[in-house]
Amino acid sequence: MISRIERGESSPTAVVLGKLSAAFQLSVASLLTPPEASPGGAHEEDGVRRRADSPGWHDPATGYQRRQIAGPGFPAEVAEIRLPAGARVPYPAAAFAFIRQVIWVLDGRLTFHDGETVHELGEGDTLELGEPAERVFVNTTDAECRYAVILARSSAP
Hints:
four-stranded antiparallel β-sheet; 13% helix; mainly beta; Jelly Rolls; globular; six-stranded antiparallel β-sheet
């Protein structure tokens, strides 16, 4: 499967990306960033990255959309996520090892399963994630949910 993804023959689902990020101890953003990407890419001027130049990815199974906001040279990863109505995206606990993460709901509602705990998050709500646990992002509404993920590396899981 990894070989097919690398050759562009298959588009991974969010679940597959979560499993790969856990296996390689890389963030999802690191998996989606082309190796030739460099800080201050060709289309950036004075630190401005145009929306059209922001790397994006679409999950063919759920409709989940992810767009990188911060460039590869920035010390934190920032991504905008669009989770369609009714979508459910699970990630294994190992995908959260060695990272610290904040979720910030920009529009809509997000039901977030953090291990056994369930958080109902609305527009403007934030959640700082603790120790790694199995996590599930769910949109139980009939409207899209848009949220940001801010991620920083930590030295231990």
